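Supplementary Data S3. Sequence and structure tokens for construct A.
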Amino acid sequence: SDRIGAVERAFNARQGITIVDDMLPQRPDFKHTPDGATERDAHMALVRSWYDENGYNPETGLPTQETCTRLNIADVAKTLAEDGPLKKWDGPLLMDLECYPKGGARF
């Protein structure tokens, strides 16, 4: 399962999905508050800690060369290294809340 997770992470990185995309969704009315920022910071600290403990680079979220070698997927690390900087995700955008029934309000 570690090996599959590392390959999935590398695949996602090649598709432009980065550590920035590892955030949990927040309610729109909470997201732009000081408590929302505190929650995001705490979540990112946990994510980075998990990456570090599991042999991933805590700054990029990618498996390290050592981890790839240990998991016998050194070719994955080589491909990531050769591809250079990762492009930002340019996939479909989320709809504005106004597009949802009742403006995204929860009842």
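Construct B, processed identically:
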Amino acid sequence: LWKMFLGISIGGLFRPFKAYFHKSVPETYRYTFQFYGGQVEEQFDEFLNNFSYYFVTEDIEENDLKIIKTARRNDVREKKAFRILNYDWISNCLQEKRLVDENDYIF
């Protein structure tokens, strides 16, 4: 509780974001993302992607990554396309108690 008074509460760190998690990402990351305010997309639709991030593992199959990148290119929303990130971004944000630079985690 005292951390809230010092301005370092991270309770809603992921609140602005909605994400989809690849099947290879451990479920604990999905729950952690939700616990800190993020929304989790349950369905991946190749043409109707309404989320900010698609989290994957470092060792994702090349074919799976190709499908995801194709879907991102096909994203017809007017907003910017989702970003494909290594799921370690979640842990590192929590460790730093802030949103860290995504560029180190992009696929």
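The chain is about 30% helix and 15% strand. Residues 1-6 have pLDDT under 50 and may be disordered.
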